[in-house]
Structure formats: C-alpha cells, structure tokens
Amino acid sequence: MEKSETSAASQTLKKPRADLNSLPTRQYLDQTVAPILLQGLHTLARERPADPISFLAAYLLKNKGRCDEASEN
C-alpha cells in the first residue's frame, strides 16, 4: 500500500471525541468498549480465576491503553 493510501485510510478510521459523542449508543459501545471487553472475557474464560469480577476489572485497567489507542484510530 502506498503512503498516500495508508494516510487516507488512517484518516477515515480516526474518530475525534466529538464524533464519538454523536454516535448512537450501540455504535459507541462497539467502537470503544466491546473490543477490549471481548478480549478480557476471552482471557477470563480461558483462565477461569476464582474471583472473575476482580480479574476482569484488573484486565480492563491493565489493558486500558489498547482501548484508548483503538478509540483514537
């Protein structure tokens, strides 16, 4: 892919915060929360910890950076 194509593609994927506020609820959750939550649930199901709620909370906090990066793109 050429640099101009990559640049154009990345610009169309980026959503400013103002745009996130105007999205319908389902789209907002799909773009911001669902990806990291599904990864956390997958890890939770695989590891089956004794305290699943605390495990998931810790996972989300630990991997919050991924969620922030995804919502900025």
UniProtKB/TrEMBL annotation:
Q: Keyword Cytoplasm: yes or no?
A: no
One GO location term (cellular component): Set1C/COMPASS complex
Region: Disordered; residue ranges are: 1-20
Q: Please list the residue ranges that the record marks as compositionally biased, kind Polar residues.
A: 1-13
Q: What is its main location?
A: nucleus
Example of a GO biological process term: chromatin organization
Q: Which family does it belong to?
A: Belongs to the dpy-30 family.
Q: What is this protein called?
A: Protein dpy-30 homolog
